[in-house]
Amino acid sequence: MTNARRSGPDLTEAIMRTTLELGQELGYAKLSIEAIAARAGVGKHTIYRRWPSKGALLLDSLLSLSESALGYPDTGDLLMDLRTQIYEAVDLLAGPPFSALFKALIGEAQHDPGVAAALNERFIAPQADKTVARLKAARDQDRLSPDFDLDVAMAILSGPLYFRLLITQEPLTHEYVDRILDALFTGLGPRA
Amino acid sequence: MTNARRSGPDLTEAIMRTTLELGQELGYAKLSIEAIAARAGVGKHTIYRRWPSKGALLLDSLLSLSESALGYPDTGDLLMDLRTQIYEAVDLLAGPPFSALFKALIGEAQHDPGVAAALNERFIAPQADKTVARLKAARDQDRLSPDFDLDVAMAILSGPLYFRLLITQEPLTHEYVDRILDALFTGLGPRA
DNA sequence: CAAGAACGGCACGTGCCGTGCCGTTACTGT
DNA sequence: ACAGTAACGGCACGGCACGTGCCGTTCTTG
Asked: Which of B3, B5, B64, B167 is a good FRET partner for B125, with 20 to 30 A between their CA atoms?
């Protein structure tokens, strides 16, 4: 008769899975912790014990997807490595089925400092660090000018993508990624 | 004994003013239409009659500030014109006292398509168009290479700024604007 | 000056919040 | 093996803001 009550990490994972599931169905705005608890067959306490807010829960749920997925190759070909890496990230987070939830999460970060900090520490900064490290390796091997500004380069690679994703809300295609990469490395055409 | 009941445009303006006021005090998350109505001495209907949502109300409130403020000079010096324009925009929207509300508005746009569309049509696109137009003028005068990609240039100018504002949440300084402008026009250093 | 729209004030039902309490179940250390 | 404890599901609660009615009053329009 024991109803196979689940425990510990099991539950955590089940809750996160349910969060992504319900989030896709309802959208972030209509997603409620009450509904997640009901769907997951879980008491609300069990959720509140683990996460302080809906945003934190969604953050963990989404990051559990990316943690294993996003590596960073170094084949020696800088441009190709960057392209590979950015394609992966863009496909995972800006494509279906998680694009809307990821955008909502960044939205939540705009008025929840905790979410903002966690998002930075656990996703943005590591990703940026890897990009900068890959650029630095290329510079150290004299494949880039010694005065190449790594941080600005990284911002130019990321900025326009997030601009498209969050502001103009146009689709993030590989073709667009290529245009940014081209602009960064071959320049926008010399001044007359 | 007539209690000087206000009407029409008067009210609209008063509500928007109260929205900005209360928004600064409470932050967007805790800002409620109920509280705005109470503070403004107005029935909730009067607000709902004008705006469909809190986001739409905040959008109008914030845009009423920028509409008159953000011009676009053409002195002939492209770099200086861009710098002037971007400084202005950055100071107005990314500096106190409206930075937090502006960020919250963009956050709202992530799960309210209406707000997203209105934000684009009434603020982002006009601003981008002006930038592109200014760049195009320079290119037409042979101050830029004929194959200078105007749209990508515009994205490289805006993207990193929004990236800083929304993602890494670092302060948007004039110095940072300068670094982006430098990178765009003098390049990041040629490849070895 | 009459008709109607817009107004402020109030009340209502609804949904979700976050918390407290219950009895039950699974883990812990000895 | 077994007691003690922590975590669990379920339920109920007060609180708050939502969005919508209704009322009586005031302003605008023709």
From this structure: B167
Per residue in A73-125, pLDDT (tens digit) is: 889 899 999 999 999 999 998 999 999 999 999 999 999 999 999 999 999 99
CB of A44 within 8 A of CB of A37? yes
Q: Within 10 Å of residue B78's Cβ, how many Cβ atoms?
A: 19
What is the residue type of A115? V
HSE-CB for A4 with a 13 A CA cutoff: 2
Mean pLDDT in chain A? 92
How far is residue B112's CA from residue A148's CA, in Å, rounded to a whole number? 40
Residue A92: which of A101, A81, A82 has the closest Cα?
A: A101
Question: CA of A11 vs C1' of C21, distance in Å?
Answer: 23
Domain total for chain A? 2
User: Inter-chain contact A162–B158, Cβ cutoff 8 Å?
Assistant: no
Pick from A111, A151, A165, A177 the residue to mutate for testing the B interface (most B CBs within 10 Å).
A111
In a domain, B80, yes or no: yes
pLDDT, tens digit (0-9, with 9 covering 90-100), for B109-120: 999 999 999 999
